[in-house]
């Protein structure tokens, strides 16, 4: 668990914890189970899940939640940036070699 940080925005921290809890679960998980695992109210967990679903970070499966494709889009963008940087480095190394 991360130590307290006076600059931390609690709602953002909780959203990250919810995403991690869903990612670590072997399947879809309900907001009541998320609440129990994180020690937050069911209402808070539910509202966070609804918001994360609205953003595409979670998807609703029945009355439970699983990871959505929104997170994959971030990863795809980062991967493309890293591949571009690597291609530039490879070109520079070829010129030096």
What does this entry show, briefly?
The chain is built from 4 helices and 3 strands; from the N terminus they run H-E-H-H-E-E-H. The protein has 97 residues and is mostly helical.
Descriptive notes:
By secondary structure, the protein is mostly helical. The protein has a domain at 10-68: Arc Repressor Mutant, subunit A (Orthogonal Bundle). It has four helices and three strands. It has helices at 10-24, 31-38, 42-54, 70-96, and strands spanning 29-30, 58-61, 64-67. It has a three-stranded antiparallel beta sheet. The protein is elongated, with a radius of gyration of 18 Å. It starts with 9 loop residues before the first helix and ends with a helix.
Task: Label this structure with key terms.
97 residues; mainly alpha; Arc Repressor Mutant, subunit A; 3-stranded antiparallel sheet; 4 helices; 3 strands; 10% strand; elongated
Provide the CATH superfamily of the domain at 10-68. Answer: Winged helix-like DNA-binding domain superfamily/Winged helix DNA-binding domain
Give unreliable regions as ranges. Answer: none
Q: Order of strands across the biggest sheet?
A: 1-3-2
Q: Distance N terminus to C terminus?
A: 47 Å
**Please, how many helices?**
4
What is the CATH level 1 assignment of the domain at 10-68? Mainly Alpha
Shape field: elongated
DSSP summary, beta strand count: 3
The CATH topology of the domain at 10-68 comes to Arc Repressor Mutant, subunit A
Relative helix content: 55-70%
Taking Cα atoms only, what radius of gyration do you get, to the nearest Å?
A: 18 Å
Q: Secondary-structure element order, as H and E?
A: HEHHEEH
Largest sheet: 3 strands, antiparallel
Nearest-integer average pLDDT: 92
């Amino acid at each position: 668990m991360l130590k307290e940080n006076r600059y931390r925005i609690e709602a953002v921290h909780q959203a990250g914890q919810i995403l991690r809890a869903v990612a670590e679960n072997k399947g879809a998980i309900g907001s009541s189970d998320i609440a129990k695992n994180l020690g937050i109210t069911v209402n808070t967990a539910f509202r966070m899940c609804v918001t994360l679903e609205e953003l595409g970070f979670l998807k609703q499966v029945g009355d439970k939640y699983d990871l959505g494709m929104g997170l994959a889009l971030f990863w795809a963008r980062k991967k493309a940036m890293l591949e571009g940087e690597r291609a530039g480095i490879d070109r520079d190394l070829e010129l030096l070699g």
